[in-house]
Amino acid sequence: MTTIDWDAAADSFDEEPDHGLRDPVVRSAWARRMETWLPTARSAVLDLGCGTGSLALLAAGQGHRVTAVDRSARMVEQARAKLAGTGTEVFVGDAAHPPVGKQRFDVILARHIVWLLPDPAAVLRHWFSLLRPGGRLVLVEGVWNGTGIPAADLTALLAEHTERVHHEPLSGDSRLWGKEVDDDRYALVARAEPPHRHTEVVDVHLILRRGSDVLLARRAGTGYADGLLHAPSGHAEDGEDVRAAMIREAAEEIGVELDPDELRVALVMQHRGPGGNPRMGWFFEADHDPARPPRNAEPDKCSELDWFPLDALPDDMVAYCRAGLDGYRAEQRFLIHWHEDDDTVAYAPRGTRRAVPLPVAAAPTGRLHHVELWAPDPAEADAEWGWLLGRLGHVPYQRWAQGRSWRRGDSYVVVEHTPGPTDGRHDSRRPGVSGLAFHVRDRATLDALLGDAPGHGWRPLSTGLPPYADESGPYAARLTNTAGHEVELVAPWSRTVPATAELGVGTGGLTR
Questions:
Q1: Nearest 5°: phi and psi at 210?
Q2: CA 384, 390, 393, 396 torsion: positive or negative?
């Protein structure tokens, strides 16, 4: 319990930027938060420990009926002067047991009060008794220089009364405090509702592809993760399926009207932010159409819209979005991404990886397990196959003196040198495996591979067919390496990538 003389502190109380809210930037930042914490409809708000009435004034200005209480007569005197003409009632009284009789309120607001209470559990029980059913308790608290109450402790105290507690970190928003802060400040919004069946917010995220690039938006002015990059995203509304939600959000955020058949499910991820509640995220993939270029359709929520390479994503991203894109690139279909309360919302390159991929049920019988290739020179094979398979999404798997392997999913390719086989180049015309064929995402990726291949020991071969003939079949390119191994790369036809005639590209297979 503090021994601060609040009457003596009243005259200088408003000098702190977050107390007096004299700075328009600070006042606006608190007003935006209050708009999200308080109901949109006109409501009865009880401000406990109101101080000089700065937050009560914001609530009144947003159309609410406000009652304010503070134990300091001097604070109340200043609050009455500040709130004159707003219809707000201001009383001298103990915030733990406010002098409001049998009145009930839609909202109880208390900033930096709970940490001062000798018996916070009993006080919270009384506060909930003053709320109408469905009302909300808004608590702004923190830990400063070792004093205060951690969010986890306060959330535990609230669990007796509600299952719905929203945790909102505040330390990272310097506009609220008029300065940068390095302590822990937060808000908890608890709803006065009886226990109910668990529900989760469903959000949708768009992975818009332009070849090997993806579209990202930089958040701004939202109060959450501002300054960080995130895929275009939003929440499904009541009665709305996830595909419809994605189409609506794409139109609202980036001005792109997508057809349902343009969307492909890329990943489903259950995620939880630091100190927050679980959410279910659906990630959809769609291809960029130059005829419908994306634009920043919500400049009040987004400061930048740009393309970034999927295989070299920036670090300044929202952590769970980065995890989703990394999982998508690794062809994972289901993820759990569960933050600990002291994690950062931002992706931390050296932080603990929270993403846990979930295996997908599948019948293993008949699927390819691995392919083995003989190579006359293991070092040469390591360089050539390592480059090509790496570009195709395989990762190094096994390594021994005379061999290497690269894995993708549960299948892998082995390239090794053993003393048994006859030395010399591989001849695809002899009986046996003629070559390997790999899917390539699109024509732009195929073109890029062809352009880089000669520098990594792979020479294009002619298919004997016209390049990029028409849209009736896939595009294919054939490559051979120093050892004579042949590989075919096959990409679907696409309207969204401009045509370029590359050596060795056509619609044929590996036959000569």
A1: -120, 85
A2: positive
In DSSP terms, 42 is beta-bridged to: none
Instruction: Give the pLDDT of residue 296.
Output: 96
pLDDT single digits (tens) 372-406: 888 888 889 899 999 999 888 888 889 988 899 99
Alpha-helical segments (H) within 144-208: 151-158, 174-177
Q: List the beta bridge partners of residue 460.
A: 479
Reported in sequence order, the residue ranges of 393-500 that DSSP labels E, i.e. its strands, are: 395-400, 403-408, 411-416, 436-439, 459-461, 475-480, 486-491
* Model pTM score: 0.47
What would the DSSP string read from start to end of 431-444? SS---EEEE-S-HH
Residue 284 phi, psi (nearest 5): -110, 145
Quickly count: other Cβ atoms within 10 Å of residue 145's Cβ: 6
From the list 74, 154, 162, the residue with the least C-alpha distance to 112 is 154
Label residue 52 exposed, middle or buried (CB < 10 Å: 0-12, 13-18, 19+): buried
Does 31 have pLDDT greater than 50? Answer: yes
With contact defined as beta carbons under 8 Å apart, do 289 and 215 qualify?
Answer: no
Using DSSP's 3-state secondary structure scheme, residue 255 falls into coil
- Among residues 113, 105, 114, the alpha carbon closest in space to that of 136 is found at 105
Separation of alpha carbons 189 and 167, rounded Å: 7
Q: What is the 3-state secondary structure (H, E, C) of 84-103?
A: CCCCCEEEECCCCCCCCCCC
Are 383 and 389 in contact by the 8 Å Cβ rule? The answer is: no
